[in-house]
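User: Structure tokens for this complex, please. No commentary.
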Amino acid sequence: MSVPIRVAAATSALGLRLDADLPPLVAALRSRGVDAEAVSWDRADVDWSTYDAVVIRSTWGYCERPASYLAWVDAVEAVTRLDNPAAPVRWDTDKRYLRELCARGVPVVPTRFVAPGERATLPERGHFVIKPAVSSGARDSARYAPEHHDAAARHIAALHAGGETAMVQPYLSRIDEGERALVFLGGMFSHAMRKGPVLTEVGVLDNDRHPHPGLARHTPTTAELDLAAAALSVVPGACPLLYARVDVALADDGSPVLMELELVEPNLFLADNPAALHHLAELIRTRAGG
Ligand SMILES: Nc1ncnc2c1ncn2[C@@H]1O[C@H](COP(=O)(O)OP(=O)(O)O)[C@@H](O)[C@H]1O
Ligand SMILES: [Mg+2]
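Assistant:
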């Protein structure tokens, strides 16, 4: 009898309880004869070399300790196949990649990065957003009006005190029409969802916001698909990626702009997309050598 392929779906204590994609993904892998299990990335007692592949799923909390997370990423890749691989993961953990995409002609949300020690010039007109360069789940992010300059400056000072680089962006009000999340599996477009705005209140920092309110299926436009392809073409490392999520918002003129490229641990909305779930399980099995 042949030995089954072993796959770890890397998660976290919170992910084990709350990641809706995790149980169906593990079940879909097991139904293909893969010896799959969900394992918290920060457990000290795991020998990752015993897996044929480690698939990054809900490794939530990595933003609070990016250095130890990236050390884990490198350590795992040194002993087995890591999907997504370390190079794109490292690149994607810091939204300063938006600069590179912008320089390569990809339309992105206009962004100013303010590193610790630098002074921010805040917009005099229109609502704007302050958020950290390393983030997920709208962590430490808030929307401000020009009359809130003092609160916004305090927000930036708090990020700097934690050693973090702040981002200043205009608030894209057409996000009310939905932020688009285009999911790619094995380098091919798979499915897309639309979600409502997260930063609905002005001047409020609230880390308990739902990161994906009002989810609905979305059929991307050609312009959105073109933007996603252009963004993905800039990602470093060997292609194709196991998965990618390209988050797109609409600028004031209605043209799509990149909000972020999610290559680390995006919610892929698999529970709502059974065909994508099984396609991903099959990709994982074959990439792991099965
Ligand atoms: N410039 C912006 N304009 C409008 N909404 C924004 C803007 N930046 C962030 N948001 C809102 O905050 C959420 C989280 O921001 P995002 O850049 O996606 O960071 P994260 O990595 O934390 O998901 C977005 O999904 C969106 O609803
Ligand atoms: Mg996001």
